[in-house]
Amino acid sequence: MPFEHNNAAQPTEWVMVDWGTSSLRGALLNAQGEVLQERAFAQGILSVPAGGFAKVFAERFGDWMSQSQRRCLISGMAGSRQGWQEATYCPCPAGLAELGQHLLWLQPGRIALVPGLSCVAQDALHTPDVMRGEEVQIWGALQLAKRDSATLVLPGTHSKWVQVKDARITGFNTYMTGEIFALLSQHSILAKTLDLNGAFEAEIFLQGIAHSQQSSRLLHSLFAVRTLGLFERMRAAALPSYLSGLLIGDELRSQAVSADAGPVMVIGSEALTLRYTLALQHLNIASQSFGAQATWAGLFALASKGFAAPSTDTP
Amino acid sequence: MPFEHNNAAQPTEWVMVDWGTSSLRGALLNAQGEVLQERAFAQGILSVPAGGFAKVFAERFGDWMSQSQRRCLISGMAGSRQGWQEATYCPCPAGLAELGQHLLWLQPGRIALVPGLSCVAQDALHTPDVMRGEEVQIWGALQLAKRDSATLVLPGTHSKWVQVKDARITGFNTYMTGEIFALLSQHSILAKTLDLNGAFEAEIFLQGIAHSQQSSRLLHSLFAVRTLGLFERMRAAALPSYLSGLLIGDELRSQAVSADAGPVMVIGSEALTLRYTLALQHLNIASQSFGAQATWAGLFALASKGFAAPSTDTP
Predict the structure, then answer these.
(1) Which residues of chain A are within 8 Å of residue B244 when distances are taken between CB atoms?
(2) Which of A248-257, B163-172, B273-282 has the lowest mean pLDDT?
(3) Which residues contact B141 (CB under 8 A, 6 or more apart)?
């Protein structure tokens, strides 16, 4: 029984939404969590004017929501300060139960924003770290893999490395790998020598990975992309693969992945999970990959967990 | 006798030019190397159309060159592929003598481009590294400090760490520190929380330095600039100093500076040499700073070294 107040005889169907910075995706799930339909729009939160979220939501998913017994969970940046409403971060360690308690109800009992997670590093400044949207993918992938403890990585603009123990996220670290790749390959001096139209080359990528294992001097290693191009020691079309290897290699170098912890779970697009799988393999670390299905599985796991919706007169 | 063919009874005066990517500077030196006049223009090589270098040079320094006994040396990016003419890199180890042999004569015996230096790393790919313009500053600073062996750093868009032994540059490494600071503070997600108008704050900067000494995970540490701002744990105006500390700290972390080698010589603008001096002090490493005068001293040292100008019929 997903929502405690759901007294309808009919089992609940779900409209699940992942509203990120640059994209808006939705899925209609039946009461067993099977995906009936999917939709995707290039309508991330940055493209929505303040106060315009309810309107966009109604345009894109109003038809699905027209059946009154359907419920909706929305994860991702829609719950950020720049989103629909700010859903305060749920602090780690956290399981699905804590996440459920921190839902922000837009229509009590009917539509809720899933909060992100925060954690605090054991450093001098007690530096905070945050995620929004990845948390549901993590629990989704765990569900799909039937695991309750793992090291996970979610590559992307801001990669997340995550520790899960007994189905609770105990801590995580963000790496600016994807954003720095984009900045360097488009706007830095490296952009002058590399050709971004080059197809991904696994062998060159692994040379970058190997280089990063030998050196912790990333700010220096990166300049090799300039000089290898300048001296025509590497083709312009191969340089993006090399740069990608240097950056992902540096991210991996700083991970202490124990083989006892089981395969590392990699969650993301096919292009990115391929790169991380290759890199981990190169370092003799086993991995499992998960794609978009993790999002819907995670949102359904959250819905199925059972949590109290506030009564409709709660502010 | 600076140039072998200089048979004039009158001692030679010098027009010294440092033509970089974004600026053009010149100095008129007397035969003793004293600076008589200086000029600076925002007319770096990127602003000069192909084929337009001789014209800009004549406009800016034609009056100085109108006295026929004056000679001119031009260092910096003017000798790059995108510059006036490409002066092939002089390979390290190199002293002033080798540099003199690699001059590229634009007007034989009268105007020459100083080549940059190249070196090769001891890594699997034998990665090349390059500099243009810094080499004359290095020899200038050594001259001013009366030293012939040292570890030097030239902070900037692309910082250079340099080893000099017996007045010869034995090797160097480039770090993309300055360029990455600019990209992150202007174009990344960090730009949303930090205020670039904030004045430099030494205490905050040193917190960044300290953070980088404890962690070699730069791609992760950088994200702290986002979250410390997001949780209002650090003022927006202080964040640029913190980011600068993280990046310069990471650059310093990878240096093996021996105390026996004497103070590290820091060459650059006042704002940057201050930061490196503070950071090195924090790590108990002594340093000496040098500014723009190192350029003119280096070019004069090169001119005074004595090298053969080609005869005027050399192509």
Answers:
(1) none
(2) A248-257
(3) B152, B265, B267, B290, B294, B297, B298
